Amino acid sequence: MPYAGFQIPSFTFADTPDARLFDRVIELATAAEDAGFDSVWVMDHFLQIPMVGAIDDPMLEGYTTLAALATRTSRVDLGTLVTGVTYRNPALLAKMVTTLDVISSGRALLGIGAAWNEAEHAAYGFDFPPLTERFERLEEALQICRAMFREDAPTFEGRHGSIHDAINVPRPVRPGGPPVLIGGSGERKTLRLVAQYGDYSNLFGDVEQIRHLLEVLDRHCDDVGRDPSAITRTRLGSLLVAPTEEEADERAAAARERLGVDDETFRGFVTVGSPDGIAEQLGAFLDVGLDGHIVNLVPGTADAESVALAGEALARLR
Which range of residues forms the domain containing residue 179? Predict the structure, then answer.
């Protein structure tokens, strides 16, 4: 069956004080679990990113949020989409994800990428190395995390990071450790790392872009002797869903006005429709080889009812 993930990228809710904010997050996560989603994801950012909201919008730290959600859910996997490799020492990250796996009884996922938000790094005092170095750090982090998930007391000496007899107890609950999702669509570096280390690959783009990227990933898998079917391949996309097409169009008009964009631009990055209409549009991606979707809801439209409708749409793909 096609994979279905639900991302919560925004913690901005109308008329919700900070003390009640997490209640709304729980509402969305449990609605996603009830709707049949396989996983729930949050971003790994400390400031809201421009394509989602204002820089001073509320932003919860990802792993703290996931640990709390682990106690309020029972079935969905939990991960960040995706951890910036520059934000944490890799061994600390491995310990945090292992702890999440224990708290959730084996439902943790390690989503990770090379990081991109230079302004965020400057604001919080993180070094922002050149792209080449960030990818070197990403590969080393993948090696360190995998070793700490799987070995009793691993040692690793890299150019940028190292561990020495790094005991990681308690061990991850999931055999082999939490699966790894490597985010990004870079053809030369990111997809090569996916082929070598990833269990999931999350991509961006339209149908033809996704078709091309899957072909590139297949070639990288051939180069490293990996079966491409061992990697679950998803696309991240935004939805605006309503019970009927007419209601969806009305809500899209209101969302466009808030964002200050025209209809063509809006529908270029948001799939709009009823559950049937959404399913028809997203089904085209499965036809070119995608294994499923990770979706979020346009900020300002996320509530339990809309999550249920989104789950209904993706269930139609199954």
Answer: 3-315
